[in-house]
Amino acid sequence: HHSFTTGSKNVSVHGYWLRDSNGCPTEADVTVYLQATACGASSCVWTNVAVTSERTTPGSGSGNRINARVGCSSEATVGYRALTDVDLPWIVDPNGQTESDHVNRQCVPA
User: Fold this and answer.
1) To the nearest 5 percent, what fractions of the chain are helix, strand and coil?
2) Among the four 19, 44, 64, 109, which has the fewest Cβ within 10 Å?
3) pLDDT average per 10 residues of sequence, the chain (110 residues)
4) CB-neighbour burial class of residue 14 (10 A; exposed 0-12, middle 13-18, buried 19+)
């Protein structure tokens, strides 16, 4: 799950994980990447502007969410997305990350 907020001259996103019905495991290493578009003369690429990684228990409550945040240097429109990677300790789990919807915010990353 991803959720974007904008306020106090920053953009932040949070991610979390949910355990399946079998109850295992009880913890996971969750990394949240906040990315912004960086455009050159001929193309745009996604660039990490904030990365946070923590071991957490499952759930969507405030104590389980991992947040990534970046301050704004100005108020021009920039595209953002979030990627969340969940790694289960001591368990082989699929590679890959969950990608959020792309959003535009009035915030140039500081």
Assistant:
1) 0, 60, 40
2) 44
3) 63 88 83 92 92 93 91 91 92 86 91
4) buried
